[in-house]
Every structure is written in C-alpha cells, then in structure tokens.
Amino acid sequence: MKLWKRAAAAIKDRKSLLAVGFSKRTSHHNLDLEAAIIKATSHDSSSVDYSNAHRVYKWIRSSPLNLKTLIHTLSSRVNHTRSWIVSLKSLMLLHGVLSCKLPSVLGELRRLPFDLSDFSDGHSCLSKTWGFNIFVRAYFTFLHSYSPFLSDQFHRRPAANRRSSELERIRKLQSLLDLILQIRPIADNMKRTLILEAMDCIVVESINIYGRICSGVIRMLPSSGKTDAAATLKIIDKATSQGEDLAIYFEFCKGFGVPNARDTPQFVSIPKAEVEKIKKMIKNVEEEEEEEEEVVVEEEKAMVVLEKPRLQTIVTEKWEIFEDDECCFHEKVIKEYQKHPLPLIVSYQEPVYIEYMMPDLITF
C-alpha cells in the first residue's frame, strides 16, 4: 500500500513537470523556476530536495519578477494537491524565502499566497493524518503573522517616540515566539524525515526570535523611565517566562530527535540589577500616586465640611419681624397706598405716582 502511494505521488509530480514543459515561456513566466518549485515541494515525505530549494532562492534573489512565479505556482500547487506533504514543504520553502529578507520579497509578500488555517489532508483518513493537519495549521499560523511583521519592520520609519516603538516591536516578537512554540509533533506516527527537517527550521527560528527579544530588552533597560517602567517590567517578566518555555521546548525537540536541538543555546541573561531598579521605580510611582489620592480625598472632605450649612431650630411664642434690605414695606407707604391705590414701586423714598396715560397694548 505504501509503495503504491509513493508511485502515485511520483506520477502526480511527473505530470506537473510535464505540464510546465509544454507551457509557453514568457518574460513573466519563468519555467525553470516553476520546475524547481515543483521538485522542492514533491509528494515524497522521506526526503527534502534542498538543491532545488536553493535554486528557488537563487532565482528570487536574481530578479523581483520571479516572485510572481513563486506566488502563483505555490498557490496553485497547495490548493490543488491537498496533501500535508506538499503543504508542509511549501511552508518550509516560503519560510526560507522570507529568511532571505530581500526588499522585493518583504515589500510584496506581506501575506501568504494560500490559506491553511483549516487545512485537512484529502488523501488519507483523519485517524492517520490529524497530527499532520495540526502541525501544518500551526506552522501556517506562525508564518501568517511573521510575514507582515517582517514587512512592517522593513517599511517602518523613525517614530517620534522611539522607545514606545521599540517596546511594541518586542511585544510582537514575544507574540511570534508564543506561536512558534505551538509547532510540534503530537501524534505517534509523526516521526518522519520531513517532520524532523521542518522542526530543524522551527528550532533555528525560535532561537533567532528569542535572541532578538533578549537583546531588545537589554538595550531598553538603561533608559527606562517612570512613564514606561510598568510596561518594561511586564515585557521582562514575559521574556523570563518564555525563556523557561523555550528550554522545555528544546528538551522536547531533543527527545524527539531534532538535530538542531541537541545543544540548548545559552542566551545573554537580563541584568538583575536593572530589573530591581525598574521594580523600585514602579514602587515609588505607586507610593506617589497613593499620596496624591490621599491629598485629593482630604481636600474633598474639607470641601464637604465647608459646604454643609449650619441649621438651627428656634422655638418662640413671639412673632419676629424680619426685614429684608431689598423688599421691605414701610408703614407710611402702606397707608399712602390705601389712600391712593395706584401703581406702586416699593422703596425707602416717597411713593412714585404715574400720572400720564398708559397705552393700551392689547387693543392697539
């Protein structure tokens, strides 16, 4: 059965190569590059054709126009084959192209030319391929985030707040490391040459990303200030935790037989003195904020006390006469009004009588 599957897979690759041979050669269609891509992403799970993979890298470096051929060929091949072997080899090939870090590649290849987020092998039963399906999906998820990150780093301009921009870059690297640590074989039937080769690439990339995180943190420590001390400490705590996770990941890869995981790398440790300095800075900031809050509370209490009126109740059997400076009626004024009931203006002076005729504003 295995021999028959290998023969059928070889026939498929042969048919693809024959189709390329009969295609029309144009300035935008590199047949040699297309043939190298097909050979580098063959259906053979027992080996990886590195010679043709390097041919692909060489063609990509030679001209930006070849990138269109790469995108078209990989997209068509992955979508039509539905094979975990072809899909995984295509991801590995794209990973190598991204690692070249060419301006033409990073400018154009912001998104992967295919979607493998819900990949499922279409040639074998799920009970045999579920582990490979998850592996392909995890690898795609990482590259799907890694590609735009590299593109943004290539096109980024000097930011007004350089420190804030650097902190954001380190956070994204930490997110990428979280994704790459999810790529691992989890089924019993996954110890194959192709999986080991893919894990080799993943291990090297994980070392690269974690090294960039550590170097970025070390550069940021001397210039840490009160405004970003909390954010810096959060990044340091996560970097420390990820270092432990990476060590466990390396032990797993070493036990699985990944060649590049035989020796655990030694990273530059984050200076503890600088970390303690940041913690002390955060503590001082928190104490200052608490003191400010206490002052505000005391001021609010004082304001409430001042605003509270003092009310008294007086019980008496005598009537008190209260005079208002604004509206008081003198006895003399009242008597005059009784004699002459005319319009009256209340005042301390003698009453003023209006003797001219008022206009009729209603019937006018």
From TrEMBL:
Signal peptide: none annotated. GO terms for biological process: clathrin coat assembly; clathrin-dependent endocytosis; vesicle budding from membrane. CDD domains: ANTH_N_AP180_plant. Gene3D superfamilies: 1.25.40.90, ANTH domain. One of its GO terms (molecular function) is phosphatidylinositol-4,5-bisphosphate binding. Residues 25-157 form the ENTH domain. Its main location: cytoplasm. This is ENTH domain-containing protein.
